[in-house]
Write a structure and sequence with these properties.
This protein is mainly α. The chain is 71% helix and 0% strand.
Amino acid sequence: MKIERLIKMANDIGDFFNAESNKEIAAEGVKKHILRSWDPRMRRAIFSYYQEDGSQLSDLAKKAVSTLDQPE
């Protein structure tokens, strides 16, 4: 899957959880969704993108992706 699609997906998930006023809880929701719904290749790709650049990720998506353990 292209990284542009993963970025859009992560940002869309972040937009959904952004309604939560507590951004720590919102970021945890994004993280849990990614862990539950994305396969390991997708998680590795978005984590690598975050480490290398991450500029196109929303603030909430960045916060969530940054808390992922190094994906397998």
